[in-house]
Write a structure and sequence with these properties.
This protein has four helices and five strands, in the order E-H-E-H-E-H-E-E-H. By secondary structure, the chain is an alpha/beta fold.
Amino acid sequence: MGYIFSREIDNNIIPQKVQNLVIRDYAQRNKMNLLLSSTEYKMKNSYLMFDSLVNKKNTKFSGLIIYSLFMLKEYKDLKKIFNNLKKNNIRLFCALEEIELNNLNDSKYLKDTFFINRNNKNEKK
């Protein structure tokens, strides 16, 4: 299952068509069957669609391919994501960065990445 945003991703507007192309390419290169992408609501800090995908066991898909790990930058509780992924046996892939996130250690990796990214942008100002 794909997952895309209609709002900014790390201060950039990425057209949904481009996000879907990157996700589709990632799925093809990794020999994954891809279902249509779910699109998040445009409301600031909304993760309603994302939560609905990872919070319950689903027989339609076993993995979620998001466009970029920076889509999770504003998510309040990263540990909750990984707990739900593990509980529901769902794999999480970031197509742009070409990585899989799959355990609680990855939540620390994400927090560190977001911190470095934020500080790097502040230095450029």
